[in-house]
Amino acid sequence: MTLKDLLKTMDSRLLVRVEWMSEPIVTVRAGSWMYLDDALLSVEVAAIEGAQSMPMRDDGAVIIRLKSDIPVYVKTADELQAMMDNSSINCIALAADITADDDQGILCVENLGEKTLDLNGYMLAATNGDCEYVSAITVYGILNIIDTAGGGEVYGGKYASDTANCIESKSGAIVNIYGGHYAINDLAEASVSNVYANGGIVNIYGGYFENQAMGTGDNSVLKSEDGMIVCYGGIYVGQDPAEFTPCGKQVIASNRNYSKFYRVVGK
Beta-carbon neighbour count of residue 214 at 10 Å? Predict the structure, then answer.
């Protein structure tokens, strides 16, 4: 619901304070919504705090928190997770390389609405040294991954004894990848994947996917179990994405530095 739609349903005498990222923007009576800027009125509402059943005095107000499409910049794994868990924030951008040695990976995206992660030229690296299973990014909701600066990277778990992934899409999740470099370099006897659709959906529109695993496990660039991967674009090293490529697209193969490269392009 937009701010305009919400204010039109409120008692016109209600005092409301509009906030964005916990900062107050304007305080008005609900009935004066037509005097607010059209751009502000079109912003989606994230949350409402305060009673709406009766007019409030000037010393109290209904708080309306707006969603944010402007990137919030983060430099640590804790900051990244906290911003991703904030329902009023839609877009998070990296402002530094983030490395985490955690059994749960670096980031877990819950079902809190559509989120966008901008790698912004930086790296997310899961460097677990003592665990069985790790995915650098695990998604239960909707996540768009972009890389506006270029050169951004997601590095999958290292030395995991069973399974390591860059991206894992769980049941009901949707991941849209538009850019970035996704690398795995796992030296243990693990099953490793750059992209793992574990019951969820992954749409790939761009990006570079490279599996450098040297272990004896089940190594793959793209892996789907009860999920779906659709490759509309992207470059894949070591695995032909033909089985995941829709009609209207084709795969062009080439050899480079003793590796097989596959590019998905339009016909």
Answer: 10
pTM: 0.77
d(CA 146, CA 60): 41
Amino acid at 96: A
Contact 110, 82 (CB under 8 A): no
Would you state the structure tokens that stand for residue 135, as one six-digit string? 């995915």
CA-nearest of 205, 150, 209 to 184 is 209
64 closest CA partner among 18, 133, 113, 124: 18
pLDDT tens-digit readout, 225-263: 999 999 999 999 989 999 999 998 999 999 987 788 999
Provide mean pLDDT across the span 66-94: 87
CA dist., res. 95 & res. 72, Å (int):
9
**148 neighbors 118 (Cβ within 8 angstroms):** yes
Q: Which of helix, strand or coil describes residue 69? A: coil
Q: Which token pair is 141?
A: 């909701």
Q: Give me the phi and psi of 53, to 5 degrees please.
A: -85, -15
The model's pLDDT over 141-173, given as tens digits with 9 standing for 90+, comes to 999 999 999 999 998 865 555 677 899 999 999
